Amino acid sequence: MLSALIWIPVVGACAIALVPNEIAKDRLRGVAIAVTSLVLAWSLFLAYQFDVIGVGLQFQEKIPWLDSLGLTYQLGLDGLSLPLLVLNNFLTLIALFCSDRSLDRPRLYYILVLLINTGVSGAFLAHNLLLFFLFYELELIPLYLLINIWGGARRGYAATKFLIYTAVSGILILGAFLGVTWLGGSSTFEYNPALAQNLPMTAQLILLGAIVIGFGIKIPLFPLHTWLPDAHVEASTPISVLLAGVLLKLGTYGLLRFGLQLFPDAWAIAAPYLAIWAVVSVLFGSFTAIAQTDMKKMVAYSSVGHMGYVLLAAAAATPLSLLGSVFQMISHGLISALLFLLVGVVYKKTGTRDITVLRGLLAPERGLPVIGSLMILGVMASAGIPGMVGFISEFLVFRGSFMVFPVQTLLSMIGTGLTAVYFLLLVNRAFFGRLPDQFSNLPPVFWSERAPGVVLAALIVLLGLQPSWMVRWTETTTTAMLENYAAIATKAEIAPKTAMGFEK
Fold first, then answer.
1. Is 62 helix (H, G, I), strand (E, B) or coil?
2. How large is the greatest C-alpha to C-alpha distance in the chain, in angstroms?
3. What is the DSSP string of 247-315?
4. Tens of pLDDT along 452-484?
5. pTM value?
């Protein structure tokens, strides 16, 4: 059942590759959308069949592959991977739908997008360390090509920078996986949370450090973030949607799955420092976003800040904070996808993303009133306004982390206030005021361009009003993640006070 999520996009990519050249571009686009729709429908069917109170992996598949290397084709689904899997398929469909119908080399474009979908789905489903690494690296070359071929003026620089950073990330993660397996005395790379427990603490800390830095590049966290703004600015709008909405979540997923679960004791020791790192990343991303004039770069730096909340929640390692971390991944995926989509429409219609040039786009007659309204909604959600998904995710993160890391949590809450500041600057400068004469004859915005944003906005509000619809899939898993390692929270309650210079 799970293999279909991986192999249907591969079959679709092969079908697109074999389509005759005389077939219209829209036919290729239609095939890609149909394939992704089928995958999304299948993932929703699995969600319907998913046992929300069950602990452990469901729908497992295990097939021997390369026994000499310890590589097995082992897949499984739990409450941590299920919502991310659905998010991946949904945002891939959104990205395909908003892709330019007249783009060059459409065959290669749609093949690469489907391969990224396969790689991300495989990474979320893999329960063999080496298999996860293969899927984790699978998306590297397709995304590099998507940025380098269909990107902006500096696409070569941005794509190469992304390639180098992600390659270093992969090397660190592979090294950590090899260390866990070989030092643990295992003959296979099967995912086993108990494998690292017999290792000396020094070895655990070194391996955990490699995993945290490796996935920290992917998230990205300060100061490992420098590839992200360049990649976003130069990438096309659909690729920015995938990059922010899905691919960054591989990093946070990896921290929870392979950091917290594999090295709970080492994680408890490192937790205070990880929380401090989260605060620095949150504040840096927020303050840097304030200084931006490019709308796309502002949204990119906001991702650096908001992904820091996930690290804070993971460092706290309480059932509520872990639930909040997963909810924050979904929340950020939906909100960032919406914001990048809207920025893309603004750029397409006006020819600029500079908020010092744009004015009055909310004008009802000659401006972009629907796009402006959706932008205001997305900004409110990102700032954590009640009634939207951003409020629920941040509340869960802060509430679950405060009892463990009160100082760090309060400092991170400043980032929420700063989010309102820089997005208010964006909305006030670009959408309010008098529309300049140079933008008096903007091209019309078709409903096909508005529809993806409307759907995303509806989900943002719906999950904000009914968070239980998402929480129910994850709560059992996040609670069970800590049941076997009760010492994590206990150690973490004491350690931060020591690190901050207070006595318990």
1. strand
2. 74
3. ITHHHHHHIIIIIITT-HHHHHHHHHHHHHHHHHHHHHHHHHHHT--BHHHHHHHHHHHHHHHHHHHHH
4. 999 999 999 999 998 888 888 888 888 887 765
5. 0.91
